[in-house]
Design a protein that fits this description.
The complex is a heterotetramer, with two copies of chain A (327 residues) and two copies of chain C (330 residues). Chain A has 327 residues and is α/β, with parallel strands linked by helices. Chain A has two domains: 181 residues, Thiamin diphosphate (ThDP)-binding fold, Pyr/PP domains (Rossmann fold, 3-Layer(aba) Sandwich), CATH 3.40.50; 130 residues, 3-Layer(aba) Sandwich (Rossmann fold), CATH 3.40.50. Chain A is globular, with a radius of gyration of 19 Å. In chain C, the strands form two sheets. Chain C has a five-stranded parallel beta sheet, with helices on both faces. Chain C has a two-stranded antiparallel ribbon with strand order 4-5. Chain C has 330 residues and is α/β, with parallel strands linked by helices. In chain C, strand 6, helix 7 and strand 7 form a beta-alpha-beta unit. In chain C, helix 5 runs parallel beside helix 6. Chain C starts with 12 loop residues before the first helix and ends in a 16-residue tail after the last helix. Classes of the chains: A alpha/beta (327), C alpha/beta (330). Chains A and D meet through helix 3 and helix 12 of A and loops of D. Bound molecules: thiamine diphosphate (2 copies) and magnesium ion (MG) (2 copies). The site of one magnesium ion has 6 residues of chain D, from strand 4.
Amino acid sequence: MPVISYIDAVTTAIREEMERDSRVFVLGEDVGKKGGVFKATNGLYEQFGEERVIDTPLAESAIAGVGIGAAMYGMRPIAEMQFADFIMPAVNQIISEAAKIRYRSNNDWDCPIVIRAPYGGGVHGALYHSQSVEAIFANQPGLKIVMPSTPYDVKGLLKAAIRDNDPVLFFEHKRAYRLIKGEVPNDDYVLPIGKADVKRQGEDITVITYGLCVHFALQAAEKLASDGISVHVLDLRTVYPLDKEAIIEAAAKTGKVLLITEDTKEGSIISEVSAIIAENCLFDLDAPIMRLAGPDVPAMPYAPTMEKYFMVNPDKVEKAMRELAEY
Amino acid sequence: MPVISYIDAVTTAIREEMERDSRVFVLGEDVGKKGGVFKATNGLYEQFGEERVIDTPLAESAIAGVGIGAAMYGMRPIAEMQFADFIMPAVNQIISEAAKIRYRSNNDWDCPIVIRAPYGGGVHGALYHSQSVEAIFANQPGLKIVMPSTPYDVKGLLKAAIRDNDPVLFFEHKRAYRLIKGEVPNDDYVLPIGKADVKRQGEDITVITYGLCVHFALQAAEKLASDGISVHVLDLRTVYPLDKEAIIEAAAKTGKVLLITEDTKEGSIISEVSAIIAENCLFDLDAPIMRLAGPDVPAMPYAPTMEKYFMVNPDKVEKAMRELAEY
Amino acid sequence: MVENRHKELGLSDEKVLEMYKVMLLSRRIDERMWLLNRSGKIPFVVSCQGQEAAQVGAAFALDRENDYILPYYRDVGVVLTFGMTAKELMLSGFAKAEDPNSGGRQMPGHFGQKKNRIVTGSSPVTTQVPHAVGIALAGKMEGKDFVTFTTFGEGSSNQGDFHEGANFAGVHKLPVIFMCENNKYAISVPIEKQLACENVSDRAIGYGMPGVTVDGNDPLAVYRAVKEAADRGRRGEGPTLVETVSYRLTPHSSDDDDMSYRTSDEVAQAKTKDAIITFGAYLKENGILNDDLEKQMNDDIMKTVNEATDYAENAPYAKAESLLEYVYEK
Amino acid sequence: MVENRHKELGLSDEKVLEMYKVMLLSRRIDERMWLLNRSGKIPFVVSCQGQEAAQVGAAFALDRENDYILPYYRDVGVVLTFGMTAKELMLSGFAKAEDPNSGGRQMPGHFGQKKNRIVTGSSPVTTQVPHAVGIALAGKMEGKDFVTFTTFGEGSSNQGDFHEGANFAGVHKLPVIFMCENNKYAISVPIEKQLACENVSDRAIGYGMPGVTVDGNDPLAVYRAVKEAADRGRRGEGPTLVETVSYRLTPHSSDDDDMSYRTSDEVAQAKTKDAIITFGAYLKENGILNDDLEKQMNDDIMKTVNEATDYAENAPYAKAESLLEYVYEK
Ligand SMILES: Cc1ncc(C[n+]2csc(CCOP(=O)(O)OP(=O)(O)O)c2C)c(N)n1
Ligand SMILES: Cc1ncc(C[n+]2csc(CCOP(=O)(O)OP(=O)(O)O)c2C)c(N)n1
Ligand SMILES: [Mg+2]
Ligand SMILES: [Mg+2]
């Protein structure tokens, strides 16, 4: 199987879906001629033309809103927000509109849009090019939020998102774009939205996380393995709505749970994961539910000293894992 | 002490602060001549004139953004969002701007704005005049979110919010406006933002909630008391950042915890409350952490059948309490 | 006899009579809604009164079999023209399960009916503007020749979504008609406190599109403006901004008391220009309407409204648990 | 000798020479930032090159002791005029603790310095526009006579916040100067794909304010337009929209490769109009600048830039744990 990068998996998924279905199109800032500021849409403008790979005016609410209109008509828009941080002007369109179209029309209309955005830090992006924004949306029924960790998952889940008949927010970790490579079949395949994935089987402690932190957890698990500590790693993949069954199963399996997010801690995705566990399998637990996250500051600073302090990394993950294992 | 309604406490707090400090002013849609669609700013236009009680154009991002500008200059704006549901266009100004001004300027600038909005259901408001929106913001360090339950708390906390040197979102339950009355001193007093409040002491089970649900919990507690079940009720009052100590203390006290919100369940305020408990006092628990919330649907419908089904009410609260007590 | 102004627009006598009938039906439905509200039978009304001429004039200028419409909450006249029935509107007023707009999930005035290309709407104002642009974009991509029509109030033209949507349509030369129903108030806030420009249509040049302001009490003037805009759109010449100026004859909604911010004199003054009267007079002066016909028309309409009311009042609500449905595709 | 155009504007020879010096300092700082970036010493640059004339011309037309400014990320010329120093800009480029803008928390180009009334800015474009309006509103409430000046790109003028902010200022007749630095591109997207109007200033009428378009390579033309706008504002006549047209001479930022969407010919063509050259020539032709003075000026500037670079490079970063500070007031 070919090994490709995380970002190439994004491009491949979009290209294949555009080839497969003429209703699929891309819109966003600089997605056309330039191929995106990260090059996620590289080559699509040349292949599909400016009518299907649209460089829009600089206005996120319109990017989302025009996409939503097209989706209601029956198209399959893929809207790009240049950075997840810049999705904020589009919140009204996403929460008031996309999320509620099927529901408010009693199933008469639907809104099959995908909104992609690069998120996450560790790239000297400072306060406004580093944020994790999923928690803002992860309380809005009607939305699905996908945050894949591997190129394989990216391709399968992005295709699933494009074919999904409901709105999907698809957040891609920008540091993973070129850092993370993996085997990706050339074939067409989709992966189920809403299902978490066990990325490593283990017996002693359970780590539940998503995105780039999955890799930190797997690296740390490898280290702990040589000390005889066996780590179970569950990758949420879809962070809203959560895969409750998989979470309960993974937590109950070892009775010791570490939850990890790169986002700031209070009110994050892992808070809900914790609540699900505390509600459903409390008596299976042998330790408090531990959380490792960014500090509760508005966003990560630019200076390398402070950025590094903010970011979750393999060392912090390893330390937390060992602490939990010893509990 | 005079007994006044929840909404009169809002008006009183604003009026007194405007009398006290000439930098305090009000801006929003219909807040002036009409005195607000709920009459929360009734009489202020007459008393303070159109320069300090400003009927703005219909544009929430400008209401927030102009307020933020004035706040950075040194004024004390109180911006009204006509309904919490209509705060969405202002999310960028609130999250990208208000929340981050002190932090990003390394304490050179600050943003003492209050953004008020009526939230909550049970008033035939349908999908877009009933929502609880706090979870959208309750993951953004730099913001404080206050959601009082009683007229006494309204007055003390709104005054504190106006005097606070950081941005405060102040959400008022619109059904509480005229339904809830209580004693409110004529004097000037402030209550501490960030502190939860024990609304009833009890020994058998702990209920942690906020807003209108506090009253449902107190009503139900009264009923249970006659059956010899003693309920401890903690009113969060500030839902972000949460009062961790008070939560841990209240949960540990009885070992049986019921969390209640009117909001949809997944990703709500009570998820974080649960995570705090599961992280800090898991072994004090004698029962799973129970959550009572709205169903995970986009928002509550208009038809009375469906609206009623959606809403938390004293009966549902009582039922959940009894279940927990018997656990 | 006054000048016959509809012939030159290509409108037959039957057509203008039909227009009048829809205007009247809109008014009577709205009046009924108020009665139902004041007698405690329905919780909420938001009115079309004073804007029927603009709504019906515009909707008649569109292709009712092909064009897409994204009406705002006052557009009873628009949706009736596009095929929604009095009964359906009443079902919505009563929030009953059969309401085609939302099955009783949304307040009245939140229109949507796919079979008639009435695109589902929400409460936050002006979000429909970019949607209209997106539908037009989709149509262009698919080589269709429909136009897309959307409306909003003058206060709402201050929302960012109006600006962003209009600009997108201008840049991509999309066949969208943006119609601002300027009724001089946004709830209590008069137009001088909403906009500093003379006409809302002054904004069009900033999006590279023509902008026109017409008398919203004159259905023929509105018809002409919207017809021209639709023709432009179909010719591939892009969007148009049409502003119709009239007056909101009722309070903002059943929750509003307009006497706290305007005078009854001002309202009475505006009522002298009510298109239900003035267009009726025009039809009579042109010999198209007479007292008998008018009475007959009114009787028919009242029968329709009564039947619709009875049906809707007796129709069942959606089951409580049904609120769990349609969050996502099943 | 060419016509002396600055006298009639009330600008002395010293003043225009000072303007030129600030333009040149801006350019040299920017060039140094690119060198530092390309040699791996700083992670990011976003440039003022091509816009110095507009920035300095505008800033000189303001009252540097009283007016408030809300610059956007390219406004090196504006903030230098308002009192920020080369050293401070370099500290920001190197993200060092002493950076007065943010203590190294924000990327360079995110200006803010309270003592000079430079209002803290963020990355999401155009959010500063309503802030400028709010500051002007506050000034009006307090009876002050300062004006508020804010800038943004032409692409950014498509954001809702531009529309909402401009409209608010128009309705309340606030002394705000909205200056659009039109450099023909928004990253890779050329102006034709951003706006359908001929000039960004065409939007002014929609907000009831005057709009003017001036040559952004001519600091005197910009000075005149902004001076008039400031005077209007101080006279209580409300806001103005000024558009300065020039060209972005560098890639969008150090992360961009502009050759993927425009030609080097086009850039070379634009460079012939570079104000650093043309305004220098104007000064020479008017006998205000000569080769000696120019050399001296350049040497002074390079010394300033070198010292600033050395200082900033050697300055300490903020302590890691300090990131926990200033979330809320202590
Ligand atoms: C985003 C948003 N903010 C506030 C409201 C509340 N609201 C409903 S209608 C209205 C006034 C609308 O005025 P206008 O646009 O002139 O339309 P009209 O009602 O006069 O037809 C307001 C403020 C809303 N629905 N959406
Ligand atoms: C809300 C938002 N969306 C996207 C971006 C990313 N971005 C930064 S600059 C820019 C282009 C700005 O173009 P223009 O307004 O013309 O200013 P210029 O850079 O040309 O001076 C974009 C898209 C952003 N900063 N903010
Ligand atoms: Mg109006
Ligand atoms: Mg530009």
